[in-house]
Amino acid sequence: MQGTKAAVKEAHNELVHILVVDDERSICELLEITFRKEGHRVEVAHSVEAAKRKLESQIFDIIISDVRMPGTTGVDLLKFTKEISPNSFFLLITGVPTVETAIAAINSGADRYVIKDHELVDQLRRAVKEVSESLKWKKEAGYLRRELRRLTGLDNIIGQSPKMRAIFDLIQTIAPQTSRVLITGESGTGKELVARAIHENSLRAQAPFITINCGAFPETLLESELFGYMKGAFTGANENRQGLFQAAHGGTLFMDEIGNMSLTMQVKLYRVLQEGKVRPIGSTEEIDVDVRIIAATNKEFEKEIAEGRFREDLYYRLSVIPIQLPALRERREDIPLLARHFLETFRKSMEKPIEGLSPEAVRRLEAYDWPGNVRELENTMERAVALETTGEISLRVLPDRIAGYSSVGVPGGGAAGEPIFPAEGLDFEKEIAETERRYLQAALEKAHGVRTKASDLLKISYRSFRHYAKKHNL
């Protein structure tokens, strides 16, 4: 409770973070001076593209944006903001008010629509004051909601990509059931987090959630860990010991790296799943157990079964409901969100005044392939926060393998610059599309968001540039 009260107090004392977006520099300067005098943190952007880059690397409480700007409109920025930062308040301002614009603003989710006239500053000050008061209570309520979600397991899984949303929906659907679940995916993708979320959202949530890494024990020790043993069953068995199946009775047993289990142990596990009984080592009595099994592995079961290392009958017993977790490189849109999450975690624990990530740092994080997945990203952000001495994470504190990774295309190979071709092959069309997107982003950055200049840099027509920008949702 003390931690909760401290967090609530912090929410009340926190200043509002404002982003002002307008191609008129005088308006930006006026609003920046006004709100800074009132103690708020203010940043400005003179184009929608620049604003999007800031929104991808920082969290803003309030966005104040002009409607009409060269290229993309403020309404388009509003739609983008509602996707990436739905809790931010969005105030649209315009010097050319029309009914159509007002309707578009309201339908897109604008919180306020303010006319640019002699009362503009006063209207915005009143709106910001109202919003900041509202945010104080929202942050308090948000903290309590996050605590609730943490207790139910879902708050530990970060992601907004379509693949992760599908995982969230599946967790909610299968959690109340008792069916066995098999979670597959590369190391570091968060298999235990998903297993725990399933348990915490199930009818077994009040019962134990027990975990075991099947690859961490030799066969004889794994058997005693799972089934227990009686005193005198083997050398060193000085007392009766309950196994994990008994310890998890009524709850969930998460068996990680089950693909590393020996064939002998697979036979014994199959019998337990079939009969619902365990026999401790050295005992002649079988004990009834009611346990939901959630298993996980980073191995490919089809290959393991074909090569005789895993029993097909056990596989079908375990995989009543299969869940395939995507690798981090398959959901790159979640990388900035995860990076900000880890930044916030380590910033608080290390008590460092780091507010965000530089746009270039975000781009390199997005470009890197993350063979260690979310776990590698977490370690990278912990290192970056520990080393950073400025107010934002920069390229210099990222590991060389990430900071030096090409943000356009694949990394260079040998002296001739041949691309490094993965042993497992690649999705050619996806790689080409990703390369197109990165070159477009790089050109826009170099041209400071001016599309005509970006098209000249890429030596393509402005019409072609617009086609590619629309294709890649830039």
Task: Please provide a written account of the structure.
With 474 residues, the protein is α/β, with parallel strands linked by helices. The chain has four domains: 2-150, Response regulator (Rossmann fold, 3-Layer(aba) Sandwich), CATH 3.40.50.2300; 155-326, 3-Layer(aba) Sandwich (Rossmann fold), CATH 3.40.50.300; 328-405, Helicase, Ruva Protein, domain 3 (Orthogonal Bundle), CATH 1.10.8; 423-474, Arc Repressor Mutant, subunit A. The protein is 48% helix and 13% strand. The protein has helices at residues 2-13, 25-37, 48-57, 74-84, 99-107, 120-151, 162-174, 191-200, 219-227, 244-247, 263-275, 301-306, 312-318, 335-350, 359-367, 373-387, 400-403, 428-446, 451-457, 462-471, and strands spanning 17-21, 41-45, 62-66, 89-94, 112-115, 181-184, 209-213, 228-229, 241-242, 252-256, 277-278, 287-288, 292-297, 321-324, 356-357, 392-393. Strands 2-1-3-4-5 form a five-stranded parallel beta sheet, sandwiched between helices. It has a five-stranded parallel beta sheet with strand order 7-10-13-6-14. A two-stranded antiparallel sheet has the order 8-9. Helix 19 packs across helix 20. The two termini are 45 Å apart. The model is unreliable at 1-14 and 407-418 (pLDDT under 50).
Strand order of the largest sheet: 2-1-3-4-5
CATH topology of the largest domain: Rossmann fold
Low-confidence stretches: 1-14, 407-418
How many domains, in number, for the residues? Answer: 4
Major beta sheet summary: 5 strands, parallel
Any idea what the CATH superfamily of the largest domain is called?
P-loop containing nucleotide triphosphate hydrolases
Overall CATH class of the largest domain = Alpha Beta
